[in-house]
Amino acid sequence: MKKRILKDIEVSEVGMGCMAFSHGYGRIPSEEYSIEAIQNAYHHGCTFFDTAEVYSPNLSGIGHNEKIVGKALKDVRKDIVLATKLFIDRSEISREGSVYHAIKRHLTDSMRRLQTDYIDLYYLHRTSGGVSVEEVAEAMGRLIDEGIIQGWGLSQVDVDLIDRAQKVTPLSAIQNIYSMVERDVEKAVIPYCLKNNIGVVPFSPIASGLLSGKITTKTEFERNDDVRNWVPQLSKRNIEGNQPIIDLLQEYAQMKNATSAQISLAWMLKKYPNVLPIPVSKNKERIIENLDASEVELTQEEFEALDKALNQLKVYGHRGFTR
Ligand SMILES: NC(=O)c1ccc[n+]([C@@H]2O[C@H](COP(=O)([O-])OP(=O)(O)OC[C@H]3O[C@@H](n4cnc5c(N)ncnc54)[C@H](OP(=O)(O)O)[C@@H]3O)[C@@H](O)[C@H]2O)c1
Predict the structure, then answer these.
(1) Residue 314 parent element (H or E)
(2) What three-state secondary structure class fits 9?
(3) What is the DSSP letter of 75?
(4) 45: which DSSP letter?
(5) Taking the domains of the chain in order of start, what are their residue ranges?
(6) Cβ distance 303 to 267 under 8 Å?
(7) Stretch 152-179: mean pLDDT, rounded?
(8) Which pLDDT score, from 0 to 100, does residue 94 have?
(9) Atom 33 (ligand 1) nearest CA
(10) Catalytic: which of 25, 42, 55, 252?
(11) Class of CATH domain 3-205+265-296
(12) What value does the mean pLDDT of the chain take?
């Protein structure tokens, strides 16, 4: 797989979101299957793995996903880049003594579950806990100085927040929603990150499966713990409305002997040198398919035609994420 530089660390240009082994897309696979799927991805060349402390069935516990990722990757820990995320709330600060100590408590617990003594990329999952981004940035700076984390990031943030954080402790990455049907970050976030050597890690890069072309108005999502039931972009009306985008992807997929999901990833990889998508799948074959988007090379001419065609199409609905 091709490599890309995230701040100053080399990683595979397509990473692996691991969330679906614990949460978000219906019934979870067995632990054995999940571990094998993660190890297969590593053997295929993936070196960038994404998890979070909250990824657990129905988001009802802590650490289910981190434990699986830890078991799968402990033997190759030094060869991979491991990212995880925390939520922090103001109420924790008085208990732990400071923002730094509260964050360190989360970090220590995550590292234990991940079977490691350092984290490459530690994100604040949301800035909604009543703790200022400057306080978090200052604490993350201390943890970087101590060598416990290599870098830090923010998730689902605008340029104002990024800039405030960056002024305290330079960021390694921003993890925001980004796909062909969710392009807000192109306006200000990506240009800011390009200028300041910050990686952009798109989540939902395949728009929760929509851009694979495999979801139709007839698709029934699972009843339990399946976010696709509430993603507005996956309502029957919006699937119909977005059909021209699916058709466009299909056209390119045929031309390039690739799949629609791969074209949607290849498009963003071609568009920006600092973008590193982390698609998720519960399915071993699709995980490899998504990683292989790294091998789908759009020529400059093909990319420009695709981008132009996309710009002319209206997008219906959104993923339902706000800050
Ligand atoms: N920072 C945040 O707040 C945040 C929020 C959400 C997600 N994330 C991260 O981002 C990662 C990915 O985002 P996401 O889960 O929202 O969405 P995504 O990768 O855009 O879509 C995942 C969905 O697409 C399907 N899919 C994936 N590859 C496919 C393919 N090649 N062909 C057909 N269908 C395919 C999967 O189904 P199958 O399993 O059936 O293949 C799954 O239902 C997560 O693992 C997580 O690490 C972060």
Answers:
(1) none
(2) strand
(3) G
(4) T
(5) 3-205+265-296
(6) yes
(7) 98
(8) 87
(9) 212
(10) 55
(11) alpha beta
(12) 96
CA 128, CA 88: separation in Å to the nearest integer?
Answer: 8
* Residue partners of 243: CB distance under 8 A and separation at least 6: none
CA dihedral 144, 201, 232, 126 (to 10 degrees): 10
Q: Dihedral of CA 91/92/94/95: which sign?
A: positive
User: 196 in the Ramachandran plot: left (φ > 0), alpha (ψ -120 to 50) or beta?
Assistant: alpha
| Span 58-75, pLDDT tens digits | 999 999 999 999 999 999
Question: What pLDDT shows up at residue 322?
Answer: 57
CA of 84 to the centre of ligand 1 (A): 16
Burial pattern 186-211, b for ≥16 Cβ within 10 A else e, equals: eeebbebbeeeebbbbbbbbbbbbbb
What's the pLDDT band for 129 if we cut at 50, 70, 90? confident
pLDDT at 150: 98
Beta-bridge mates of residue 3? 12
First to last CA, the chain: 33
Is residue 123 part of the annotated active site? The answer reads no
Query: Is the full-model pTM beyond 0.70?
Result: yes
Please tell me the predicted confidence (pLDDT) of residue 151: 98
DSSP result, 154-219: EES--HHHHHHHHHHS--SEEE-B-BTTB-GGGTTHHHHHHHTT-EE--BSTTTTTGGGT---TTP
Residue 4: φ, ψ to 5°: -145, 155
Q: What are phi and psi of 261, to 5 degrees?
A: -60, -40
Distance from residue 280's CA to the centre of ligand 1 (Å): 4
Q: Is 36 helix (H, G, I), strand (E, B) or coil?
A: helix
Lowest mean pLDDT among 171-175, 203-207, 220-224, 278-282: 220-224
* Cβ–Cβ < 8 Å for 95, 123: no
Q: 293 near 268, Cβ under 8 Å? A: no
Nearest-atom number in ligand 1 for the CA of 155 is: 1
Query: 154 CA distance to ligand 1 centroid (A)?
Result: 19
